[in-house]
Amino acid sequence: MNELLDQTEAFQNLLIAHATGGSEDEAEFIRLRQMLLSNPALDALVPRFVRTSRNLAQFWQFIKYKYSTYAERRQFIWDEFRPLLEVLERGPLSPADQLVTEKLEKFDASHVQAAWSKALERRASDPEGAITSARTLIESVCKHILDSSDISYDDGAELPKLYKLTAEALNLAPSQHTETVFKQILGGCTAVVEGLGSLRNRLSDAHGKGKVASKPAPRHAELAVNLSGALATYLLATWEARSEATA
Description:
Oligomer: single chain
Structural class: mainly alpha
Distance between the termini: 48 Å
């Protein structure tokens, strides 16, 4: 068990003890909280109440009004820390995962960060759920860019349609370029989106299955999550660059 996992579990236990009548050490709370908040790779996984509770007094005011019983408080803290602990149990984030996490954190879009967090935490234990979250990430990024660009769209539109609108707004549609290399690369992005949609429809938990159905393996989820993370950061980086150029 790595040190970061040990320290995170210690922090969870400290919060549970304080929430159930204990009197915990303020300095230890501050140390463990800072340990989590200073790690950019964990930003999307740290519970929100940890960010907003800067000392034990603030945490106590939060938890005592949120739940009245010790059992409810324990369950809440366990549930809030579970995604973070599950990721840490699998070991440190890969460099690629950390890069995507850091880039997505730059954008004030909690739904985008939530989709990425779910995709990461489900890859090994719930491949079907991870594939659903991978698609949700791209949908969320497309809608975020379209909303910020004041471009209207059907909220129930399929992913390929949302991506087409987004790509055209960012000048990333293959038809907007004449150079063969750019058309190939951008056509590949379109194929990734269509592939994610097809993979999700065939393998994910988004649709009911018959008696005979393919079941995704962690490697399928790994591919879907990696592709979605790379494409999401590319779209957001392009949108940011165009926004700065027109500012």
